[in-house]
Amino acid sequence: MFGIIYDLETSDLLPTGQILNYTFLAINEHFKVLEELIGTVRLSCTQLPTPSAILANKINILTHQAEAEESEAEAAFKIHSFIKKYCDLSSAQVCLAGYNSSKFDLGFLRTTFIRNGLNPYFGGKLTYSDLIFLTKKLFLTAKDFPSFRIKKKKPLDRRVSFSLENVAQRLGILTGAQTHHSKEDAYLTLELAKFFWDKYDLHLFKFNAFEPYPLLQKYLEEGKDELFLLYRLEPDYKGKVKYKKIPYVFLGLNNKNSSVWVNLNTFEEIDKIGKVSRLKEAVEFFNHNTSCFFAKEFTEEEKKEWVALAARAKEVLQGKVNARASRKNFDIELDIYRLELSTLDLLHQAIWKKNTGALEVLKKRFQAKRRTQNAKDAWVLWQRFQLNNYEWNGKQDAYFKAVFNEYVKYRWLGGMEIPFYTDCCVEEYKKYLHPPYHYLLRQAKKLKKRCKSEREKALLESLIKYYEISPVGKAVKEILVSGEKAAVSGK
What's the confidence (pLDDT) of residue 64? Predict the structure, then answer.
């Protein structure tokens, strides 16, 4: 059986950003490295890194741009071919795993694949695991496992951190600071996987963090009408107790690989204040392959305590929740899974096979009077691929310049709505918007003033310079100047 350990360093938390460097390690079941794939990726003309990303991954962006070897499309194809190679070689499924990868890296990787016309599912030959889930499981169950409390100056600060650096240091695997380069992080993740297998007999390939699965299968097979209740065990990050028991009731299957549950604590809190419209906030979706749900069964006495609230939650929310609710206002790269696989195949044919027939189908669908969202999304991805891979100083410069400026207005001058963004000042922009160019520039300058580290100052200086000389930065200036001229002339 094969597995692949991986890590990505990226330009942004949002999937509209880009991979900057990557490492993929093909391993066998004994954690021996069979092959490695390592690369650095040039930023596309449409991209700008965020200050928080640069400070996290310690990349000097000007040096990076001078030395990076691959375009995003080239990197995506290499990575896809690497994974496919081991899927084809293996008679069993291949385990793809990272550290905290289910929360970030996996979605980022899939978005990168799809927008470059590559199918991210590999015919069902991939399984997924995450070393942070194994870490949390051992934290909850192993008596000799460290507490992972953050070392703070305040003696009463008992907060717990499952960062790769903190975990590896406490387990004696890492002696210095984490480098935050994909190669070092991938090998550190591999050492952690070996440690868990050697000391605790917990193997990455065989671990499933969605523990309700066998109980859920039994419940569904029996076809009982009674409520299906489980506790979800979650580490207490404040460190007051080791873990919390959170009561959940099963609401139904979303599809064959995911299920819908109601967090009864959240439901009770909202129900008490009478906010009926907000009760859906208690609903959570769990993917049976990539989600973490450490389960504990209710005792009969505990069931009696929760059954009335669980019944009310099921009555109120049954059939009223849809994981794929329409999100048409959001960019396709922020909701990449809405692109149909048959359409992705056409995109693949157009990009990688140079199939003019497939391209013509995409174009006709886009130009149809009753154009579907799927047709629009596919054409947007095709145009962006062409833009990011266009070789300038050619016959189509004027066309692509116009397309590029429209994209800059949309993404970098306050037009792109987003479903979430923790670093964006919502109060300033009134709604969730992709951080505009000037916001990032101002943020980088503020952080530089506050920096005590000379290394971080140098990284931010490089970033500010890149903002100013980048294709996006130049386009922003041109657009704003042309807008001012138009205003003066009264156009």
Answer: 98
Range 196-233 burial, b when 16+ CB lie within 10 A, else e = bbeeeebbbbebbbbbbbeebeebeeeeeeebbbbbbb
Kind plus residue range of the DSSP H or E element containing 471: helix 471-489
Which residue ranges of the chain lie beneath pLDDT 50?
A: 326, 421-430, 488, 490-491
Closest CA relative to residue 248, chosen from 322, 319, 302: 302
**Which residues on adjacent β-strands are paired with residue 149?**
160
Q: Which two tokens stand for residue 300?
A: 């009969």
Three-state DSSP class for residue 94: strand
Q: d(Cα 259, Cα 338) in Å, to the nearest integer?
A: 18
Residue span(s) of the chain under CATH 3.30.420.10 come to: 2-206
Cβ partners under 8 Å of residue 337, min gap 6: 110
**Pair 215, 191: CB distance under 8 Å:** no
Whole-angstrom distance, CA of residue 235 vs CA of residue 213: 20
Q: H helices of 36-142, where?
A: 51-57, 61-67, 72-89, 105-115, 131-141
Please spell the DSSP secondary structure of 128-149, one letter per residue.
Answer: EEEHHHHHHHHHHH-TTS---B
479: tokens are 């657009």
The separation between the first and the last C-alpha atoms of the chain, rounded to the nearest angstrom, is: 66
- Residues 2-206: name the CATH superfamily: Ribonuclease H-like superfamily/Ribonuclease H (3.30.420.10)
Task: State pLDDT tens for residues 399-421.
Answer: 999 999 999 999 999 889 887 54
Type and span of the H or E element at 419: none
- 19 with 9: CB under 8 angstroms? yes
For residue 5, how many other CB atoms are within 10 A of its CB?
30
Tell the burial category of 11 from Cβ atoms under 10 Å away from its Cβ (0-12, 13-18, 19+). Answer: buried
- SS3 category, 250: strand
The residue type at 227: L
φ, ψ for residue 436, nearest 5 deg? -70, 165
CA atoms of 426 and 468, how far apart (whole Å): 25
